[in-house]
Every structure is written in C-alpha cells, then in structure tokens.
Records
---
Amino acid sequence: MQRKRNRGRIGRPMKILALCIGNPQRLPGKSYKTGIFKHAVNGAMMIDAEGLVGDAICNRKHHGGIDQAVYIEGSLTLDWWSGELGRPHEPGTFGEKMVISGLDNRDVSVGDRFISGDLVLEVSACRIPCATFAAKMNDPKFVKRYTVAARPGIYCRVVTGGVAKPGMPVEYQPFRGEKVTIAELMETFGRRLSAADRARYLAAPIHYKLRAMLEAQR
C-alpha cells in the first residue's frame, strides 16, 4: 500500500518552514559563549550526522552530538508561544535549527521520523530547558514556564544526511511501537520509572544518555 506523502499526523501538509544556524556569542553577564542565538538562512543547507553544517555548538557536553543533531520546533507550537509571550516568534528564537510547518510538538513521539528529500530525521529526545535558555529569553523564570507549558522542542538524530532548504515538503512517519511522547519525556525527566514504563522507554529509540540512565535503574 502506497504511503500518503507530506501529510502530518494532524492531516495537514508539512514543509520545512525555516532552517537556522548561529555563531558563538556571549550572553550578557555570562563569561561563556553559546550557540543558542540562531538566525534563519534562505538557501540550501547540508545536514550530516552532527547537524547543520556551519552551525555553532559551544557546549558539547550538553548540546549537539549524534542524538541531538537537529533541534526542531513545530510552527503550531511556535504560534502558541507567540500568543503566550505577546510577540511574534522569529525563527531561531528558541535556538531551534529547523521549523516544520503544520506541526504541533505535543503530537510527536520518540522514533517518529521526518523525511525531506534524502534527509531522514528520527526523534530521540525532548528539549530540557536550562539557565542559558532562560538568560537568552531574558526571563529568570522561563525554565519553569517552558516546563509547565508541556510543549518541549524535539531533538532528532540524522538517520540519512542530505541537503535541505526552506519550502521542501516533509513526510511524517510515526513510530510503530508503543508511544513515548516528548511531553512525557520532559515530565518524567530525572525520575525513577516503573518497570513497565522503563521497558516501554527502552523499547523506543531514545537518546543514548537516557538509555544508559534507565538501564542503570534495573
């Protein structure tokens, strides 16, 4: 049976709305540099196992790497944040590397795939907000605000690299196993799971660091 292409879970066509990269910059009052300041690019970008070629990753202990190569925000989630914050959300505001139109972050689970041309991205983790994010948003309470909103950003590994550019159609391919939503991942982050939930998490292609944490709980 032929799959329906370029349709999201919510039944709308999906496409790459923006690709964003950044350069190392210092936050006001901070001594370290960060790559969280992103701006949209108009042309095509090469995406390999480490993410968008040319994008700055300053703290590789907590950012980047094979299971956090591409950070995605859905346009429907960003529209919600625009209303919540009372101002337009320009691409890159949250440090996202890709914006996909017609996508609500709450609908996404670990193992879901986004396919655009040769590029294949697989969801591996949720964004956990940090002090750098709060400082960038100029709001010391933003970590709590972001957590309570329960619409975390989406980290993906690159299954197959390729060239991407704004306007390219995106096919959504749901994970076939039991669902572990990214909202659930954020809600349970740092907690000890029940044996049943731990087994469900480990059956999904979760981030290798989370996998190691859960396996240590056995």
---
Amino acid sequence: MAELAKEAGITVRTLRFYRERKLIPPPRREGRIAWYNEHHLARLRTIGALLERGHTLGGIGELLAAFESGRDVGELLGLDAPLVPPWSEETPVRLTPEELADHFRDDITPENLTASLDIGYLAVDGDEFVHISRRLLDASTELVNKGVPLAAVLEAGRQVRAHADALADLFTALIRTHVLADVLPATPTDRPPTPQDVGRIADTIDKLRPLPKGVVEAELSMAMDRRIRREIEQWLRACGDEEDGEGG
C-alpha cells in the first residue's frame, strides 16, 4: 500500500480512504501481504484527473460503478490504459469546512467560495471540500497569511490558469508540428495507427515531458528577477528624490 501511494503521489491515508469508498478494487492477497498492480495505479491516476476537472468523489464513485457494471463510460473515465501518463503530479486534499476556515479565516465568504468552485480549485463532496492541489492550497494559504486578500489570490489564479492554458497550447503545437510529424510521418487518413505508432508517440512525449516545465520555470524566474530589480530601483530613486527635496 505504501509503495502504491508513493507511486500515485498520494498519502497512505488518502489511499485507505479511497479503498473504504470502494473507488479502487481490492488487492490480490497472499497471506498477510496485499499486492497492487498497474491497474490500481491507473485507477488512482484517473481519480486524480477527474478531481482536477472538478468531479466529486461521490460522482466518481457512480461513474466507476457504471463502468464496472458494463455501461459504456470507459472512454469518459479513461480507465483503459492511457496513451501517456498524466502530466500533472498534483495531490488533491480533502478538507472539512472547519479545516478550510483554518486556512483562510475571515476570507471564507460566499463570494470567495463561489469563485473557488468556478475556477475549479474546490469541489464539494458531501459535507467536505476537495481541493485539486496540495501545492496550490499551500501557496494560497501562505499568500493570505502574508496579507494578500483571498479574492485577489483567486483572481490571480484565474489569470495564471489562462496563461498556463496558452503555454500548454504553444508547447502542444510545437510537439505536434515538429516532433510527432517525424515520429509518425503518415497521417491518420493514410492508414490507421498501429500499436507501434502509439508506443512511439507515448515514448516521445514521455521524453519531452520535463522540457516545457524547465522552460517555463527558467523564464518565470528571470522575469521575476527583472521585475523585482526594477521595483527596487524605482523605490531607491523615489527615496533619493525625497531626500533631495528635504535638503533643498
């Protein structure tokens, strides 16, 4: 169980909770040992992807039950082996209303809750909330603790989401046009893709996975350096102007 939780990027406690909710099938047992396999890992990644898209655990459970009963929702859930693993490594967080209030105190207003649900940061599951990302939750909490209003954090998050979507479109177009065209020169209209084609696509994309993240992190770091340096220079000039005025 610990190995599966680590591979899926969740805690053992979260994995036990999913088992209790029957969101993953039971493991194969040999005596006191429970064995999990790639099917369990794929199911956990599917749950994470659906939570990220705003689905509740209750809704996910209904969809999984429908799939296992033979109804045609497999494509919707992505329970078949995915072409490539999810790019996101985010871990969802379950929160009671009291725990959510501990993070944001007086900033928990109907307007901010509505905005969080609209952006997709929060989903409601029964009497609890599910936040799509531990890292985003921690960053939002720290910003609010430093004095940034939650409404401003959420608006910034909305803008970051739009820029992130634009960056993803840019990198996807680059990969599709200049990389996958070489891997698969034949278009889908020439012939149907073979398992070998699918394997080459998955392998190529997996190797490219770190590059967009590295480019964005490097550019953002340098942009922050430029902006902070400019802000400090402007502040120093303003201080100098005030001193000159007093001296005159």
